[in-house]
Amino acid sequence: MTENWVYSLPELPYGYDALEPHISGQIMKLHHSKHHQAYVTNLNNALDLQQKAIKSNDIVTQLQLQQAISFNAGGNINHTLFWESLVPASSPSAQTNAAPNLMASINNCWSSFDHFIEKFSAVLLNIKGSGWGWLVQDKITGGLSLIATKDQEIVPAGQKPLLGIDLWEHAYYLQYLNDKATYVKEIWNVINWAQVEQRFLDESVIYRGIRKERRSEL
């Protein structure tokens, strides 16, 4: 019998309907239990095939699997960060005063929180097709910036992800149809600024939510 580590779907720290009316329970359930689960399942399948290809010295298959591994691993990582970045609007963590250090840096970079939201929203609405908008911090200079990534790409090396917003259609279409602007406007009501503050202050907390568990095989 051998033991392998496999990725598993993280539990949400709130109920599916906890973010209503800003994000519907129907969307949250579908997004988490179906879409995110698919990334986890497909990632584990691709990694399993990769291990078999390594054992058989099949370099062609190893190379062919890289795209599937990158796409699904990115989907798992990005969504895990996304769920942790959300919180019910009634929570104290949804208030900007839960992130005093981050807000001071935001005000320094964008002159005001309102201007920051305006610029971040513009990044999100300019995404063509599927992708993510991010608030990131340079690991060397400590400076903040806003970027977009395509599909399920993770943030570039050298950048620390502080806050990512999902702009795939499955994140909003059941509730907002093609009205991305309203989705972007509403999501600011349920941002977990306390969590974003923790990432800003301590990089070690960022990827703690990525779950792996042992799987025994004969």
Automatic annotation (TrEMBL):
Q: Which cofactor does it need?
A: Mn(2+)
Localization in the cell: Mitochondrion matrix
Q: Where is the signal peptide?
A: none
Which leading EC class covers this enzyme? oxidoreductase
Q: Which residues form the Manganese/iron superoxide dismutase C-terminal domain?
A: 101-199
Q: Taking the first listed entry, what is the main subcellular location of this protein, grouped into a coarse class?
A: mitochondrion
Manganese/iron superoxide dismutase N-terminal domain segment(s)? 7-86
Q: Which domain of life does the protein's organism represent?
A: Eukaryota
Keywords from the named record: Manganese, Metal-binding, Mitochondrion, Oxidoreductase, Transit peptide
State which Enzyme Commission number(s) the record gives: 1.15.1.1
Under InterPro entries, the record lists: Fe/Mn_Superoxide_Dismutase, Mn/Fe_SOD, Mn/Fe_SOD_BS, Mn/Fe_SOD_C, Mn/Fe_SOD_N, Mn/Fe_SOD_N_sf, SOD_C_sf
The GO cellular component terms are:
mitochondrial matrix
What molecular function terms (GO) are annotated for this protein? manganese ion binding; superoxide dismutase activity
So where does Mn(2+) get bound? H31, H79, D166, H170
**Catalysis: reaction(s):** 2 superoxide + 2 H(+) = H2O2 + O2
User: What functional role does this protein have?
Assistant: Destroys radicals which are normally produced within the cells and which are toxic to biological systems. Destroys superoxide anion radicals which are normally produced within the cells and which are toxic to biological systems.
Q: How does it assemble?
A: Homotetramer.
Name the record gives this protein: Superoxide dismutase
